[in-house]
Design goal:
The protein has five helices and 18 strands. With about 290 residues, it is mainly β.
């Protein structure tokens, strides 16, 4: 099943070129906090999921709505660095994962959940900045069931679904700009996530899938998901060994080689087999009191 968040954070089931509105299933109390509707659905999926086929909500053309982040307000947003061997070291002295360390040694880091955006929204770079901003093509994993100390053999029991994810990054400049990684990756719209969540039952084997990222129609990144150093199962094992994972959490899987800069006016397309694709315009954000 393909689930989407659209317009004013309404929930829908994507069926062909239409979206069936299922927002009415969510308690009215969430009208005050609509970004949490998807988290409520995930937490109540065991009861609600089997009934969704019988819910005859309003249907509208998919092309007529604005798609928001596949889960706009996850409790936690984890990211796995240095997770494809061909990517390690490719950005030279701009890299902060050094010494040939991989995700297995480096662990994970956090991005701000407020950096998430949807397929219907542009990527906005800080106004007037001359810094380098790179795209990173990744798989986004949505947690369906929480837990702690989850062995990788049981990890997929905790996965709700998947979506395309772009991890935008402002690069460091040695000796001049060396901000913390979480800051450089957490600008608003720096984690496009969508276009919708594909539930895990639709994806029996991630290792058969490949991802791609294009800029202005030119392919820059492409890899098989089986080439990840730390698999999705191992990532869940790693994270849950440190902190409890929660329903609705998002994990960014790490990027393959080919990261490169984008500038306002570029068009970025990410595709993952069986999961979806989305194309986003790169624009400039409104001026901020702190320039970058």
């Amino acid at each position: 099943m393909r689930l989407a968040v659209f317009d004013d954070h309404r929930l829908g089931v994507v069926e062909g070129d239409e979206i069936r509105d299922i927002t009415g299933l969510v308690p009215a109390a969430f009208d005050q906090w609509p970004q949490q509707r998807m988290n409520w659905l995930i937490r109540n999926w065991a009861e609600i999921g089997p009934r969704l086929g019988d819910v005859d909500g309003p249907r509208v053309p998919l092309a007529s709505v604005t798609l928001r982040a596949a889960n706009p307000a996850p409790p936690q947003l984890f990211a796995i660095p240095a997770n494809y061997r061909a990517h390690i070291g490719e950005i030279g002295d701009r890299s902060v994962t050094t010494g040939g360390r991989t995700a297995r040694e480096a662990g994970f880091f956090l991005k701000a959940a407020g950096s998430l955006s949807g397929a219907g929204e542009p990527i906005t770079l800080p106004a007037g900045s001359t810094r380098r901003f790179d795209h990173e093509c990744e798989l986004g994993v949505v947690i369906g069931r929480g837990g702690r100390n989850i062995p990788r053999e049981r990890a997929f029991e905790h996965v709700f679904g998947y979506a395309c994810l772009i991890d935008m990054t402002m690069r460091i400049e040695r000796g001049k700009f060396e901000e913390d990684r979480s800051l450089r990756k957490s600008f608003r719209t720096f984690t496009p996530f969508g276009p919708f969540v594909v539930t895990a039952d639709e994806i029996p084997d991630l290792d058969t899938l490949a991802s791609r990222l294009l800029v202005n129609g030119e392919k820059r990144q492409g890899a098989s998901l089986k080439d990840m150093i730390v698999s999705v199962g191992e990532a869940i094992e790693l994270i849950s060994s440190v902190v409890d994972i929660q329903p609705g959490d998002v994990i960014a899987s790490g990027t393959p080689k080919g990261v490169a800069p984008v500038v306002p006016g570029d068009e970025v397309t990410i595709e993952i087999d069986s999961i979806g694709e989305m194309t986003l315009l790169v624009a400039e954000a409104d001026p901020a009191p702190r320039p970058f």
